[in-house]
Design brief:
Pathway: Steroid biosynthesis; Hormone biosynthesis; Plant hormone biosynthesis; brassinosteroid biosynthesis. Helix content is 55%, strand content 10%. It is built from 20 helices and 12 strands. Bound molecules: protoporphyrin IX containing FE.
Length: 498
């Protein structure tokens, strides 16, 4: 009896301490929030001690409406609010105008601030962590290379070759293929050729193997102990750096002995030309190889995801698919009758196809937001973002806002007919904006366009049931299996020919 009552007293004591602790914490929090609101810091909730609102944030990523976390807070506090996620107090903006100001004030007011696993893996030389003149120089070099006329003709042929090659293997696999895997094979091959001039073969396979291990660590717990994802990922990055570093060193030697200055052939040449005109010393090889490895990420992540989701949305929307097919068949017929090769412009001027790509990028939200840190106190539309705070500019919220898009959850490529081919605007930012606007924007559109053209004019397909998952990155849960049959059996085409 005595023992039991003693035990109860201990529990009552613990409960009292916890209750008093929580009361004091809540009091302090309320006082701090009042002070923050008086200063002009957006309203919001910092959630539980240490955890903040992280669990709710992550849980929303596992639902079919990942934007629900933002929507709930937007309805309580307005379009710009305060929260505490992933170990940081942050200000979230779901407002297109605020996002625009954040994107356009890169370097002097805002600098990128990414989760620890990403900064750890990318290292200090990453373009995502560069600022000021070095960033402008590297961004400019990559951007002009990707837009150069000489590259446009070559890359169009390279993408066509990869797409045709992989599509031709599809019927070998008992007519069932996983679109996500196939899209990764195509996009990685294209990008590695563009960046390192490495074509199909053993070297490419080894790079792909190491690269897959490396990207697994991009979003994971920041624990660097043997056996953890981050540790394995860092080891893969070391091996990749060795391989790519050797290619850079070989190229440097070849460049030194070359008499005439040639136009850059790949991204190695581009970054080795860093010092040209800028009167700066050549950056060390690990700077160059780190940036080259980083540039390969869209080959494994963003571009294949866009290709896969375009197939998913089209499979669910036969009317849009029929219009896409009609437009692409017309181009194919023209090319067959004139015996001309396809050009960059042929693919980029297919209006409905480009609208399908815009709508896919809007609805898929592959890069759902960018993270920035304020270098000084900044006031945007009356909201104070204090020095040192992070701001998350949510692209998903803007893309899924009824104020910006009618029936935002519908896949409707026709909505873009009113605005023309959308590149980027304050309410459409799949490729970011301002000084960090993605330099691979046009290349991505071209690649998706070539893939869709050859897919719809080569095969018809029936997609198996699958769903999109949004966390940690956008993916198809079962890699989007489809059952394909050759184009001749396509009833849509037969109708057209009759
Ligand atoms: C559908 C495909 C793609 C999407 C959705 C995408 C999206 C983005 C976004 C949102 C940013 C801005 C990040 C920020 O502001 O912090 C960005 C930056 C960047 N992207 Fe892409 N991207 C894609 C494809 C590509 C491709 C194919 C390449 C290159 C070969 C590429 C290279 C880059 C680079 C180098 C940056 C860094 C720019 C800088 O910080 O100055 N991206 N991308």
């Amino acid at each position: 009896m005595k023992g039991e009552s003693g035990g109860s007293l201990v529990w009552i004591g613990i409960a009292t301490v916890v209750a008093v602790g929580l009361f004091i914490y809540k009091m302090r929090k309320t006082q701090k929030e009042k002070k923050d609101t008086n200063r002009g810091i957006p309203r919001g909730n910092s959630g539980w001690p240490l955890l903040g609102e992280t669990l709710e944030f992550i849980a929303s990523g596992y639902t079919s409406r990942p934007v629900s976390f933002m929507e709930k807070r937007k309805s309580l506090y307005g379009k710009v609010f305060k929260t505490h996620i992933l170990g940081k107090g942050i200000i979230v903006s779901t407002d297109a105008e605020v996002n625009k100001v954040v994107l356009q004030n890169n370097g002097d007011v805002f600098i990128p601030c990414y989760p620890k696993s990403i900064t750890e893996l990318f290292g200090k030389n990453s373009i995502l962590q560069m600022n000021g003149p070095v960033h402008r120089r590297v961004h400019g070099l990559i951007g002009s290379f990707l837009k150069s006329a000489q590259l446009k003709a070559r890359i169009t042929r390279d993408i066509e070759a990869s797409v045709r090659h992989f599509l031709s293997t599809w019927l070998e696999n008992q007519h069932c293929v996983y679109v996500q895997d196939e899209a990764k094979k195509i996009a990685f091959e294209v990008l590695v050729k563009l960046i390192l001039s490495v074509g199909p073969g053993e070297e490419l396979n080894l790079l792909k193997k190491e690269f897959e291990e490396f990207t697994k660590g991009l979003i994971c717990l920041p624990i660097k102990l043997p056996g953890t994802t981050l540790y394995k990922s860092l080891k893969a990055k070391e091996r990749l750096s060795k391989m790519v570093g050797k290619m850079v060193e070989d190229r440097k030697l070849r460049m030194e002995t070359r008499e005439e200055k040639a136009l850059p052939n790949d991204a190695i040449d581009v970054l080795l030309g860093y010092a040209d005109g800028a009167k700066q010393p050549l950056p060390p090889s690990d700077f160059i190889s780190g940036n080259l490895i980083e540039m390969m990420i869209p080959g494994e992540e963003t571009v294949p995801t866009a290709m896969t989701l375009a197939v998913k949305f089209l499979s669910d929307n036969p009317v849009a698919l029929a219009r896409l097919l009609e437009e692409n068949m017309e181009l194919k017929r023209q090319k067959i009758s004139s015996s001309e090769d396809y050009s960059w412009t042929d693919y980029m001027s297919l209006p409905f196809t480009q609208n399908v790509i815009s709508e896919t990028l809007r609805l898929a939200n592959i890069i759902n937001a960018v993270w920035r840190k304020a270098l000084k106190d900044v006031k945007i539309k009356g909201h104070l973002i204090p020095k040192g705070w992070c701001v998350l500019a949510s692209f998903t919220s803007v893309h899924m806002d009824e104020e910006n898009y009618e029936n935002p959850y519908n896949f409707d490529p026709c909505r873009w007919e009113k605005v023309g081919i959308a590149v980027t605007s304050s309410t459409f930012t799949p490729f970011g904006g301002g000084q960090r606007l993605c330099p691979g924007l046009e290349l991505s559109r071209l690649e998706i366009s070539i893939f869709l053209h050859h897919l719809v004019t080569t095969y018809r397909w029936v997609a198996e049931k699958d769903e999109i998952v949004y966390f940690p990155t956008v993916k198809m849960k079962s890699k989007l299996p489809i059952n394909i049959m050759p184009f001749e059996q396509n009833p849509l085409i037969q109708t057209k020919q009759n």
